[in-house]
Amino acid sequence: MAMNNFNPLKGSKLFSNLNKKNNDKSKEKKKSSSTIKSSMYQRSVDMTGNNVKPIVYIVLVFLLVVIVFLVIAINMKKSCKYDGTNYINELSVYKNNSLILAKELYYRTRSIYSDFALGTNNVCGPFGEELRDGYYHKSLNVRFTTYESLYNYVNELFDEDLTKLLVSTSNYRNYDGVLYCAQSSRPKNEYYIGVESISLVDNTKTQMKYKVKEKYFSQNEDINCVNNCKYEYKENDFTLVNVDGIWKVKAFTLPY
Predict the structure, then answer these.
(1) Residues near 242 by Cβ (< 8 Å), separated by ≥ 6?
(2) Which end of the chain has the smaller Cβ count within 10 Å, N or C?
(3) Which residues, 6+ apart, have CB-to-CB distance to 88 below 8 Å?
(4) Could you give the CA distance from residue 72 to residue 53 in angstroms, rounded to a whole number?
(5) Angle of helix 147-155 versus helix 160-167 axis, rounded to 10
(6) Beta-bridge partners for 139
(7) How far apart are CA 152 and CA 174, in angstroms?
(8) What pairing do the DSSP bridges indicate for beta strands 136-139 and 178-182?
(9) Would you call 216 exposed, middle or buried from its count of C-beta atoms within 10 A (0-12, 13-18, 19+)?
């Protein structure tokens, strides 16, 4: 019975080699298992890191956007802060500047318009003897020898519609480019005194409307009156339009 426990290889060199190989395989298995676990842990760490980085970037971008919006909001609040005194001062300056422009253009307009309305000799100068159609004299005014020169002069101050109204009346004719004028005149209203006031009533970026209050002696008053005189007032529209960056007259009424 004792022979059942007998191992003929025990103690032999072959047995030792087999035990060594078995031990080596066991170590390799343990090492392989350890390597696999380490690799799985590393992947887990990498995956966790890869997931965290985009979240961090998103949070940073969000914070940056919030900061930018806060800066913009603060600046807008500062720029839009209402200061009653400053607003009134700026509005006053704007109105004063627009009134200065209006007065300058109004007096120029009145002067040029009256030249056309009161007598063609103011435009054409001395009339030449040469006639066209038995009625129109050739202009001898060195400034306006051609119809085009007169048109351009008027159009510097008036818009197209008002320019055509002044230059295209029956008093002025274009014959082959040369300016001819009819002899025509009328008296000035002797009761007219002058401008009482000019006020801005409406304005946009391209148009400004004014009311011009004109002062007259009453019809039954002596025009040479100095004290305790009776006066009358009339209001006329005066409109400026912006044409290619230049303010021109669109509406005007000659007060005399």
Answers:
(1) 205, 206, 207, 248
(2) N
(3) none
(4) 29
(5) 140
(6) 127
(7) 14
(8) antiparallel
(9) buried
d(CA 197, CA 212): 6
Amino acid occupying residue 1: M
CB within 8 A of 138, min separation 6: which ones? Answer: 127, 128, 130, 131, 132, 178, 179, 180
Per-residue pLDDT of the chain (256 residues), as tens digits, is 444 444 444 444 444 554 555 555 555 555 555 555 555 545 554 555 555 667 877 878 788 888 877 777 666 554 434 444 444 445 455 566 889 999 999 999 999 999 999 989 889 988 878 889 988 999 999 999 999 999 999 999 999 999 999 998 789 999 999 999 999 899 999 999 999 999 999 999 999 999 999 999 999 999 999 999 999 999 999 999 999 999 999 999 999 9
Pull the structure tokens for residue 223: 């025009």
pTM: 0.62
